[in-house]
Recover the amino acids of this structure.
């Protein structure tokens, strides 16, 4: 679609224009009125009201050099003719003779400082048009059309920018998903190599290095899982959960605590858990939520202070809390705490992607639950709460 066709379409989307053309014809006595797009090379009717069978329809063209509108494009001034035969400036003009009109009015439409075209009207009979009221009315309508066109252009620009941003975000998320998936293979090779090394005689230094390699592998695997979950959520797949009745959740949470104790032997993690705790839930996802909350506490909590994990059922709800001591979360960071990539704005010197709390909150939402946080000088506590039964089963 070329620019002229786009202009014709833009005019067609302005609902008020047919009414404007009707009012122009009724109040002036003119039988033909139009909104014309006028350029150096073209005169194109964008909207038309034709009661005299002039023969133009929207999209129809006149040879621009034969129109008075072309002169208006050059001067930027309106042209008003009550009676061509009695007008010394136009009675010998070729345009009235060519198109057979005796009365004529045309005013420029200026959009964003540039000439767009004209609002014009003609009739084969003479009409009194040169009154201040009539000219003022047509100029007002021309200005109204210009404002609509400018609004239409701003809307189109905004829509294009939004579409571009959406496409860019989708492409970025697809890239993240592919990257996260493809990183798994070399990571698995590193992990397999470390396991083989542990089966061979090694000195203490080598054993330490292999242990560090395995810890790095676990950390990288966790980061990849976070990235893939984030990309899946952003691409529309959401956070899949499969809540099973009588899921033994206590054992899954104990395993998370055990793994983090091994990874952080210098830290104390206290857990109040019933190994036989059963909750209708997706144990893998709840364990991931607990791991993310504990990892957040390990990262941001005071190094010499214990971290406390509790999980229990009460009053038709399951509650899991992770508490740590340390600096309270700044009040200005609370609102964006569960937004992705927000870590830098909360703790600028901390490492990580800032996806852990976001993913934990999405897992909570997928279980029809939520996470709230209370943070003051005494401690910071994240609490995940969810109903014991789903809406469908309840």
């Amino acid at each position: 679609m070329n620019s002229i066709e786009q202009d014709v379409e833009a005019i067609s989307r302005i609902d008020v224009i047919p009414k404007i053309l009707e009012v122009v014809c009724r109040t002036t006595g003119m039988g033909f009125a139009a909104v014309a797009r006028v350029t150096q090379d073209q005169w194109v009717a964008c909207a038309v009201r034709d009661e005299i069978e002039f023969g133009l329809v929207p999209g129809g063209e006149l040879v621009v050099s034969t129109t008075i509108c072309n002169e208006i494009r050059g001067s930027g001034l309106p042209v008003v003719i009550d009676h061509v035969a009695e007008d010394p400036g136009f009675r010998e003009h070729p345009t009235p003779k060519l198109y057979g009109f005796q009365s004529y009015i045309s005013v420029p439409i200026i959009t964003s400082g540039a000439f767009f075209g004209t609002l014009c009207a003609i009739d084969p009979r003479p009409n009194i048009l040169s009154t201040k009221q009539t000219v003022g009315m047509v100029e007002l309508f021309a200005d109204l059309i210009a404002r609509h066109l400018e609004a239409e252009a701003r809307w189109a620009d905004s829509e294009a920018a939004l579409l571009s941003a959406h496409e860019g975000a989708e492409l970025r998320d697809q890239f993240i998903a592919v990257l996260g998936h493809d990183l798994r293979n070399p990571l698995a090779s590193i992990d397999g190599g470390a396991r083989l090394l542990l089966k061979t005689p090694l000195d203490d230094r080598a054993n330490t290095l292999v242990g560090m390699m395995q810890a790095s592998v676990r950390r990288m695997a966790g980061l990849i899982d976070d990235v893939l979950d984030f990309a899946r959520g952003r691409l529309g797949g959401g956070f899949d959960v499969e809540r099973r009745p009588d899921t033994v959740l206590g054992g899954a949470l104990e395993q998370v605590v055990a793994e983090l104790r091994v990874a952080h032997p210098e830290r104390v993690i206290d857990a109040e858990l019933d190994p036989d705790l059963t909750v209708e839930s997706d144990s893998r996802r709840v364990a991931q939520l607990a791991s993310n909350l504990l990892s957040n506490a390990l990262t941001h909590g005071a190094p010499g202070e214990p971290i406390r994990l509790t999980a229990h059922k009460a009053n038709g709800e399951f509650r899991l809390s992770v508490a740590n001591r340390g600096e309270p979360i700044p009040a200005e960071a609370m609102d964006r705490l569960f937004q992705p990539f927000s870590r830098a704005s909360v703790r600028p010197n901390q490492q990580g992607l800032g996806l852990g709390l976001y993913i934990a909150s999405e897992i909570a939402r997928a279980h029809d639950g939520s996470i709230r946080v209370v943070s003051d000088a005494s401690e910071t506590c994240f609490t995940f709460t969810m109903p014991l039964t789903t809406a469908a089963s309840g």
Q: What stands out?
A: The CA atoms of residues 69 and 118 lie 7 Å apart.
